[in-house]
Amino acid sequence: MREALFIKQNSARWRAYEADKSRLDPDQLAESFISITDDLAYAKTFYPRSNTTKYLNGLASGFHQSIYRNKKEKSNRFILFWRYELPLIFFKHRRLLLYSFAFFLVSTLMGVLSAKYDGHFVNLILGDGYVNMTNDNIAKGDPFGVYKKMGEFEMFLMIGLNNIWVELKLVVSGIFLSVGSLYMLVYNGIMLGSFQYYFFSKGLGLQSVLVIWIHGTLEISTIIISGAAGLILGNSLLFPKTYSRLVSLKAGGKDAIKIALGILPIIVTAAFFEGYVTRHTEMPIWLSVTILVLSFIFILWYVVIYPAVLNKQFTQATPYIDDTEV
């Protein structure tokens, strides 16, 4: 990007930062500092001896000093990350989150239809061993006995590691121009659709929702979010805009990694539910529904609603011109 264009696209934001610095609270100072240091890193790379780089270096130093004076409030960097930084990344890439959800939803419907019109499709996707085991459990009157075969901690650990591995593949495979992540979204969606249809075909549809989606609400949400992170990575190569592909890839990779790390607590929580809670298939319906609804509300709030509200508040306080969305 030409230096003149770089200045034109960002100068209003820099002036706003400089003018409002004394009025910002510690959290806003930190957010502004992160943005300024990103600009400074870019300027040092492409305009190392320019006045723009000197100006940004001075601006960043001023913000650093302001944050240092408030270091007690800013001591917990992790809280800042989950409270502000990750939600703002979700908002920045909201369209790719929507695309990931759409691909997954369509793939799930494909799985449902395939299972409905092809009697062998469920066996092909889920495996004969799993289908035969579940049929045996249904005959015994315990259709979800698979969740009771292991001890709580053993299942929690195994499921947690597996889900982290799935997340890693969804994100990293995006480097193949997003095709890898799309493939995995389609595969997981088809698997979910055929899996869910199998229980409905056995007359266990509602019961399966009340049992499986205790952990499934969070687990499926992380698959969709991980898929979006993979699309961010791939699209940074496909659509670099005014940046070089290397710079665009670094920016996209940074956001993808932050998302992957940021949703780890959700993955661990889903694994905890599957290991310790889902096995209690006899729990009251109201309790199961409560867990399902609260999980859904949390995901909707943290990934969609809160990022939009936060972005509106942050934009009003310090206008941000985003030209790096990929």
Automatic annotation (TrEMBL):
Organism expressing this protein natively: Mucilaginibacter gynuensis
UniProt keyword annotations, A-Z: Membrane, Transmembrane, Transmembrane helix
Pfam families: SpoIIM
Transmembrane domains' residue ranges: 96-115, 164-185, 197-214, 220-239, 259-277, 283-304
Protein name as annotated: Stage II sporulation protein M
UniProt xrefs under InterPro entries: SpoIIM-like (IPR002798)
Matching PANTHER family: SLR1478 PROTEIN
